[in-house]
């Protein structure tokens, strides 16, 4: 009887490890809630950025609808959504003549962080998404 309990406990622990490992293997897209949740988050984020006096002048000549559409595709691709496709210009080409400063980049990150907090995105996922954006900083600034 003791051996049976020991085996049952061991199986339970192993099962818990497997499910934990599987949950961690999910793409960031799924952990963020999928494309629908990403779309809602980008809508909220872009609304903040387009109203933010620290950076909104950079978007003055941009078509807001086009900007939001490409931003959604970019975030879906960066978070590994299965059907993600991004057919826009590279980050470097897009920002080449914009003269984005470090302060403006940080303001954008601040708006994104506020949005992620608003949507109660867990710290791990928030960090991963911010790291995706951070990896493009050299092409943006």
Quick overview of this protein structure:
The protein is mainly alpha-helical. The chain is built from eight helices and no strands.
What distance lies between the first and last C-alpha atoms, to the nearest angstrom? 66 Å
Overall pLDDT: 85
Largest sheet: none
The level of helicity is over 70%
What shape does the CA trace take? globular
Number of helices: 8
Low-confidence blocks of residues: 2-22
What share of the residues does DSSP label as strand, in percent? Answer: under 5%
Question: What's the SSE pattern?
Answer: HHHHHHHH
Radius of gyration from the alpha-carbon trace, in angstroms: 20 Å
Count of strand segments:
0
Spell out the key features of this protein.
141 residues; mainly alpha; 8 helices; 71% helix; globular; disordered N terminus
Q: What secondary-structure arrangement, pairings included, does this model have?
A:
Layout: H1 2-25, H2 28-32, H3 34-51, H4 64-78, H5 91-95, H6 102-118, H7 123-134, H8 137-140
Helix pairs in contact: 3-4, 3-6
If you had to describe this structure to a student in words, what would you say it looks like?
This protein is mostly helical and 141 residues long. It has eight helices and no strands. Helix 3 packs across helix 4 and helix 3 packs across helix 6. The longest helix is centred in the first third of the chain and has 24 residues. The protein is globular and about 40 Å long. The N terminus is likely disordered.
